Amino acid sequence: MAVAEDGPVLEAVGVSLRFGGVRALTDVSFGVNRGEIFSIIGPNGAGKTSMVNCVSGRYRPTEGRIRFGGRDITRLPTRKRAAIGIGRTFQNLALFGHMTVLENIMVGRHHLLRRGFLPGMLWWVGGARREEIAHRREVEEIIDFLEIQHVRKAVAGQLSYGLRKRVELARAMALKPKLILLDEPMAGMNLEEKEDMARFIIDLNEEWGMTVLMIEHDMGVVMDISHRVVVLDFGRKIAEGRPDEVLADPHVRRAYLGEADEVVQEPAEATEPVAP
Question: What is the pLDDT of residue 265?
Answer without folding.
Answer: 43
